Amino acid sequence: MANETAASGEAARKRGARQELVGVVTSARMQKTIVVKVTRATQHPLYHRVVRSAKKYYAHDEAGEARVGDTVRIAATRPLSKLKRWRLKEIVARSTRAA
Q: How far apart (Å, rounded) are the C-alpha atoms in residues 27 and 68?
């Protein structure tokens, strides 16, 4: 038993840390799936203004615990469906809106 966990720990270290993103849940209507909007700010190469761009990610939410407006952390995983390549890791902050 201890050997198995040590072996899986070594494999995780060799593979490297999984990519993680933080965003806001925009939809939670599907079963076990949430849509997360991740906004990133980059500087324009010529004009040096901050440009905000957003992208939607479909993430797997096994327990269905995330709600619209929640700030969540998602982690990259193997493909789960045509669009889902992420899974819910944790809920960072709950939405203040009443559901």
A: 6
